[in-house]
Amino acid sequence: MTVNYPNDEIQMPGETENPNFERVRVDVAHRAQLSTQPAVLMTVRREPAAVELEEPQHDRPRRAAWRQRLVLAERGLVRGIRSDAAFFVHFFGISIVIAAAAVLGIGWMQWIAIAGCLTLVLTAEMFNQALKALAQSAGQHESPEGQRALAIGTAAVLVACIGSTIVLTLVFWQRIDQLF
After folding, report:
1. What is the pTM of this model?
2. pLDDT confidence bin for 46, thresholds 50/70/90
3. To the nearest 10°, the Cα dihedral for 32, 35, 40, 41?
4. For 95-132, what is each residue's pLDDT tens digit?
5. Rg of the chain taking only CA atoms, in angstroms
6. What are the CA-CA distances from residue 68 to residues 59, 60, 127, 179 (Å)?
7. 127: closest CA among 168, 84, 89, 164?
8. CA 112 from centre of chain
9. Nearest CA to 86 among 141, 126, 131?
10. Which one of 31, 51, 143, 172 is most buried, by most CB atoms within 10 A?
11. CATH number, domain 84-179, options 3.30.43.10, 1.10.287.3610, 2.60.120.1690, 3.40.220.10
12. Domain boundaries of the chain, sorted by first residue
């Protein structure tokens, strides 16, 4: 095996001779460490060369600030949805509400109320997920203050769900009353 360094070339067949005619055993797991065996055990380590990192040159300019915020929002939405199973429960409920609204043929004002309710619940759940992530990253999720903050976040989701359920019940009740 041959290793090429910028200024020299070292043959590493397993054992080789160095310029002092000493037998050198090469530690294959750490290719930069060499040990000599004649009388004294010696370790030679190559120090990494100092490299200055430069900002990479992009062919195209960076995204505009508003586009970067959209990208961050999309990443946050995906991470929030994937991080907890509560979103799947919410999406199941949302699909039932939308199907029922479509079957009942509700008006556009009721659609606005439904959209507001669903947005409110999902926003509350996203804030709860953000609060959980902050508590875990700060290591405060097991402290009493962290538990209290998480309980308040969960209560906020519950309040949003209860309020949305009341509004949706009124919207559907009105439409069912009109139909029958």
Report:
1. 0.60
2. low
3. 80
4. 999 999 999 999 999 999 999 999 999 999 999 999 99
5. 32
6. 17, 14, 21, 47
7. 84
8. 32
9. 126
10. 172
11. 1.10.287.3610
12. 2-43, 84-179
Alpha carbon distance 116, 142 (integer Å): 34
Structural tokens at position 104: 């009942």
Rounded Cα–Cα distance for residues 23 and 43 (Å): 13
Contacts of 101 (CB under 8 A, 6+ apart): 110, 111, 114, 171, 172
SS3 31: coil
The predicted-structure confidence for 73-84, as pLDDT tens digits, reads as follows 899 888 888 888
Distance between CA atoms of residues 108 and 171, nearest Å: 11
Look-up of token digits 């199973």: 85
Nearest to 44 by CA among 73, 22, 66: 22
In which region does residue 21 sit, left (phi positive, over 0), alpha (psi from -120 to 50) or beta (all else)?
left
Supply the DSSP symbol for 63: P
Cβ–Cβ < 8 Å for 38, 47: no
